[in-house]
Design a protein that fits this description.
Blueprint: E1 4-5, E2 8-9, E3 11-13, H1 14-21, H2 25-33, E4 41-44, E5 47-51, H3 52-59, H4 70-84
Antiparallel strand pairs: 1-2, 3-5, 4-5
Helix pairs in contact: 1-2
Amino acid sequence: MKSTINNSPLAISIREAALMLGVASQTLYNQISAGNCPIRTFKFGGRRLVSTSDILALVGRSDPNRPQTYLQRQQSTAQKTRLSR
């Protein structure tokens, strides 16, 4: 049985986190390895897991007045860089 708070698992796989963030799993792995993604990860039973609370904080809520999340800012910057080339 999974440990949960408010019906959410305490940790999820990199693949699940990538789906929540709307990025490829490899992109998330690369960002974590490079230290560019402010989420906690840990190994458990040979698997790399991600803190669900960190993902939820990174994604933010559905409030349209909420400022951009970290990944939204990174993607926007990357897109502007590509367009300026």
